[in-house]
Amino acid sequence: MPAAAAAAAELPSDPGRFFAILPIGIAVRDGTSRDPSPSASAEPVFRSRAMAVVMRLVERVSAAPRITVLVDGESGVGKEVVARAIHQRSAPRQPFVALNCAALPEGLLEAELFGHEPGAFTGACPKGRPGLLEAAGAGTLLLDEIGELPLALQARLLRVLQERSFRRLGSHVDQALQARVVACTNRDLEAEVGRGAFREDLYYRLNVMRIRVPALRERREDIEPLIEHFCLRICSETGLPAPAFGEQDLQRLREAPWRGNVRELSNAIERAVLMGPQAALPASAGPPTAGAPTTADTLSTLGEEALSIEAMERTLIRHVLGRTAGNRARAARVLGVDRTTLYSKLRRYQIA
């Protein structure tokens, strides 16, 4: 029987009887209570049976610290949160080290992963440098976006996992691998193997235990607990009051497609806290809430001199910066632009 099916079979009809689930859906261990504060965000937030199955697998895996785990699912579903939950249950006092395999070119990626001896290559640190395989110690090494790992590095990683040892670049001395390796991907690795973009032997070596994190649309029971959780966290960070979502607002949020999954929902709630709930609701989730002010209503209250695109853009940027207490990174996220674009507009409109 597959691991996920076995875990599901062991669950009671009410997942809350297996995990202690707080009103906002934060799973806690050993039946103890826990304050739903921002510090609790390391634990997955859920109320659905689908995520209870995932967490049952997490509990099983945590008992075997050397087992390699493959966590897959769509972008934004919370794969790293699941990886951290595995770490917290198996080696909480050890390092948790993450490497995004898509973020660095192949040469730098290899040096970052394996480390290097002095003079191992041009530009190497004169004193040498430990890699992440070494830095993770007896903790957890998360290889995010493992499907982006170049084929040459896939061969080296395969040997590391097989032999449980590695060498720094330029060294002839083997070091034991103590860390658990967790790999995350939003790709179908079986399909990647079929087209020759991913090594079949590495796939099977990583796929000792596979945990699929379901998309948010497959676990809509989790949407309200997540909304409450994000409101608590963001309001605590910003000092702003929580938005008052009406039943129609909540219904639109429940029915939205959430192609960006939990990450998209988090961004929507952050916008709601900073700008009001109507700014957060996806247009594809249904008609606006009755009585909500529309763009036409807002424009009708402005004078003609304020109707230019530049004037409205300047006003919006100032408003968002005020709501974010001048935090430009957060303002850029709310406005849906990158920071470079925001900085350019700040210079253009001479906004301090």
Describe this structure in words.
There is one protein chain. This protein is α/β, with parallel strands linked by helices. It folds into four domains: 63 residues, no CATH class; 149 residues, 3-Layer(aba) Sandwich (Rossmann fold), CATH 3.40.50; 76 residues, Helicase, Ruva Protein, domain 3 (Orthogonal Bundle), CATH 1.10.8; 52 residues, Arc Repressor Mutant, subunit A. 43% of the residues lie in helices and 10% in strands. The protein contains 15 helices and eleven strands. A five-stranded parallel β-sheet has the order 4-7-10-3-11. It has a two-stranded antiparallel sheet with strand order 1-2. A two-stranded antiparallel ribbon has the order 5-6. Strand 8 and strand 9 form a beta hairpin. The longest helix is centred in the middle third of the chain and has 16 residues.
Tell me the total number of β-strands: 11
Q: Can you give the helix content as a percent range?
A: 40-55%
The oligomerization state is single chain
Low-confidence stretches are 12-41, 286-307
Number of domains: 4
The top level CATH class name of the largest domain: Alpha Beta
Please identify the structural class as seen in this structure: alpha/beta
CATH architecture call of the largest domain = 3-Layer(aba) Sandwich
Q: What is the alpha-carbon Rg in Å? A: 24 Å
What gap, in angstroms, lies between the N and C termini? Answer: 62 Å
Strand order of the largest sheet: 4-7-10-3-11
The number of helical elements comes to 15
CATH topology of the largest domain: Rossmann fold
Please state the overall shape, judged from the principal axes of the Cα atoms: globular
